[in-house]
Amino acid sequence: MQEYNFHDLIWTKNITRDDGNAWAYMEHEIGAVFELNFSSKMGASNARLAKKNDLILLVQSVRSPNSSKKPTYLTHIVAPINDELTFDDPPGSHAIKRLVTVVARNLRPLVKPESLDFKRPNRGKVCTIDLIIPFLRTGLVIDLSQKQRLLWELFTVKDLSVKEIISELDETLKDPNTQAEEGKELYWEGKHKYYERDRKLIEKKKKQAIQNGKLFCEVCNIDFEKKYGPIGEGFMECHHLYPIAKSGIRTNTLDDLALVCANCHRMLHKKTLDGQYLSIRELSDLLVQHVKKSSKLRISSH
């Protein structure tokens, strides 16, 4: 299993909303996917510095109520889900955007450690963590690795496993047929697809079906070997029966998977008009009803 660790925390970025009078991006929870804005003045090259799967520490200074002071807070650790940029049209001061997912975010914003000076990276640019340095008065000597660990461990609420589903998040977002919105729903859809691609479990499921003489789509009953010959042998996809958003992360068993063809698999991931996903039985019944209706129409037309 791939998991993030403190060595992945390479970058920091200062963020702001309403000139520090409001919190930025605090509506996004762990696992949420959102567009992170970058300064137009700093340019696209700066926005591209952090690569897919690098971690970025988001820092913001927010004015305290009834005070002119703006303490500095550490609010999120995020990861870009791809290396692509988008641009607002017409452009504004922060017209460059990248899709990121939240890896860590405490319930309450963290006030920066008193011993560390955040002034050097505090200009809206993407900067290396190395620019965060101890105040001279502290006499503190700390290397990059120690600094990464210190900042990383300040966040007690993390989802380290996001690293293994980054590609699924990106792919799900680019799929023209996906109906997952940005935010937490996209995260769960990415998790769902990741578990559907557990090769070892899929092979066990197929082997079990072959032994029982049942390697066919559980929705439409297509058997690829019968239809296409030897080239179709063993060809079938797996669908995870339990939406992870509802059932949570669980240890998968063969009974959690259904064998389906690509077309039916797409339909199982397509929402109905009332925003629900169909079960294997519901989609199969729908298909039977449609076939019967089509047959009646063909007969009546003759």
From TrEMBL:
Q: Which residues form a coiled coil?
A: none
Instruction: Note the Gene3D superfamilies from the entry.
Output: 1.10.30.50
Molecular-function GO terms, alphabetical: endonuclease activity; nucleic acid binding; zinc ion binding
The leader peptide range reads: none
* Listed InterPro entries: HNH (IPR002711), HNH_nuc (IPR003615)
**Residues of the HNH nuclease domain:** 204-266
Q: Which domain of life is it from?
A: Bacteria
Q: What's the name of the protein?
A: HNH nuclease domain-containing protein
